[in-house]
């Protein structure tokens, strides 16, 4: 059975998942698999989470589509067992890749198509100029993401730890630039 610590984490993760646009049950199934010390089968997940077996099955299919859980069988047992993939860095990369596939790539495709059209009037020209800004930013982020995906977990961790130092470096430049423009 779940401990109060695990129950609290699973409950919170379910709440946060729904805020991120992810079904509460999917989030709770994932959270339980993430912190549990051994693989679990669907019946165990349903019992431990107090949700229907069909809801667990649908949640597991969604998590498999995101490629953030592993499925395997024990010899002599017909049931499928589930656990999360690798390290938190592997999970981060998988989730980011899937969000990119589902959200960023379709937006870039739509923007590319919209930028091919010749604007008919001033309003469309303005709209297209704004779309070009959005496309440029999304494309830059997409390219940066490609570079991040190639980094090892250690390199990603070092990069994230640099965060404050990098922003301070640019923050100092931005502050000096703003000061000069006021003069």
From TrEMBL:
This is HTH-type transcriptional regulator. Keywords: DNA-binding, Transcription, Transcription regulation. Transmembrane segments: none annotated. Residues 21-79 form the HTH marR-type domain. InterPro entries: ArsR-like_HTH, HTH-GbsR_regulator, HTH_MarR-typ, MJ1563, WH-like_DNA-bd_sf, WH_DNA-bd_sf. The keyword Transcription regulation applies. Belongs to the GbsR family. CDD domains: HTH_ARSR. It comes from the Bacteria. GO terms for molecular function: DNA binding; DNA-binding transcription factor activity. Coiled coil: none annotated. Pfam families: MarR_2.
